[in-house]
Amino acid sequence: MSRLHERGPARIEANLTPMIDITFLLVVFFVVVSTISEVESVEMELPKPEPTASAPPPDQSRSVLNVLPDEEGEAAGYRLNSVEYPLGADGIDALRRALTPMLRGNPDLRINLRADRRTSQKHIAPLLNAINEANTRSGSATPARVNLVVVTRRKEIE
After folding, report:
1. What are the pLDDT digits (tens) for 107-138?
2. Segments forming the whole domain that contains residue 140
């Protein structure tokens, strides 16, 4: 008879010594790090922001430009403040003509650009170009200030 059959099945044992060593080293590391972080932290009284520093700019220095969405998520047109403009080259040109005197009259004008999250970049890029061209035609030496506005809607509590 062979020796293999006499011994029986081999027992599988896990050697836990390396795992215990690593666990002990991690415990020591975290104890040392927490002690160092306590030594480095100093009790401070931080300044509180003033309400004027966090207030939005006044309404006369901003204008809202909306990209109107359609049912498929594409753009249906544009709205500058309360005036609507059609989609396409004619609408972009009319929008540029409307923006030029606004930027000439108020060089610090901030334009808040609002678009649906599904709106394609192909509808946003012409708007940015029109704003830049209107700013150039207004004679402003500084670049136009355009803010991408993200509005979060709160769920109504029933």
Report:
1. 788 888 888 777 778 888 888 888 888 888 87
2. 59-149
Q: For the chain, what is the domain count? A: 2
**Gap between the Cα atoms of 68 and 82, Å rounded:** 12
DSSP 100-131: HHHHHH-TT-EEEEE--TT--HHHHHHHHHHH
Distance of CA 45 to the CA centre of its chain: 30
Same domain assignment for residues 28 and 85: no
For 19-46, the pLDDT digits (tens) are 999 999 999 999 888 876 665 555 656 6
Q: Answer whether residue 156 is part of any domain.
A: no
CATH classification at residue 121: 3.30.420
Short-list 146, 60, 57, CA closest to 105: 60
